[in-house]
Amino acid sequence: MLRLSKLTDYATVILSFMAKDKTQVLAAMEIASMTGIAQPTVSKILKLLVNANVLISTRGAKGGYALARTPEEISVAAVISALEGPIALTECSISHQGCEQASGCDIRGNWGLINQTIHNALESVTLADLTRPAAVPEEVFVPVASLYR
Amino acid sequence: MLRLSKLTDYATVILSFMAKDKTQVLAAMEIASMTGIAQPTVSKILKLLVNANVLISTRGAKGGYALARTPEEISVAAVISALEGPIALTECSISHQGCEQASGCDIRGNWGLINQTIHNALESVTLADLTRPAAVPEEVFVPVASLYR
DNA sequence: TTAAATAGGACTAGAATAGTCCTCAATTAA
DNA sequence: TTAATTGAGGACTATTCTAGTCCTATTTAA
After folding, report:
1. Which of A26, B69, B71, B114 could serve as a FRET partner for A40 with CA atoms 20 to 30 Å apart?
2. How many angstroms separate the CA of A61 from the C1' of C16?
3. Is the residue at B1 inside a domain?
């Protein structure tokens, strides 16, 4: 289904809540109660986001989490790769180790192009865009195929 | 990892083999031996592609599978959705049933936009593009964020 | 010193995926 | 008419992945 994991979905909810909140530092428990996501799950997600430098943490009493950058500077791609690892549609795009398909491997170059296109698409959408009121343009069309010709 | 399933990966290998082959009708076993993918797995994939009208099948002796359209008319999006169902990054994009997140649901409109962008990107790449020798352009950049402003 | 927090991992249950196999239906050719 | 070939459809299993929880150590404020 080419879909994101539930945890990534939660992450976007958590991050957009944090982006809208004025408070600088929020504890995991506060975030949990405000978003309705279970506290252990929230903690797990926050830790991953810290490791990916999307959030900054402060330990100890009065500690908590804060955005590492402004919402405009946090891309959806960064969030996804924080939770799910590198954005790549096919195994081959990550490493060429397991690619022993004799007759199909000349496809890979073009798959890489698709991967990159999607990555760039996700890179260009920021947390600020997500928190913005929904925009529903008439038509959204990005002709990737034209890049090949 | 935002990645495609192994079966979808196989499907692209199978389809590009079929696109390059001159023979009109190929049996599942022939495809299996030519691609190196196990026969039962090949059959499973071929059946899914028939159901999605990407391939046409002929039963009985001398039967087999053939492309339903020219490679130029078969999009990567069609292949992906044949194997994995509708292309949608979040659960919410498919149905709004399970969306009981109180504070985060105004994100959805924008997620939908991202979904559509990626869908269009995959729609615009065809089987013909995949079989073509790999093109490696200097830069591929599709500024999705500009659509919001 | 104590309480409040995060860090880092282990662990479990459930779901999804990959892969195989079996039976039935359709077609061709002898 | 019969036998051989080939796809259709679905059941089934094993493995992997995901979601979610929990425990212990570390850090910091009061």
Report:
1. B114
2. 40
3. no
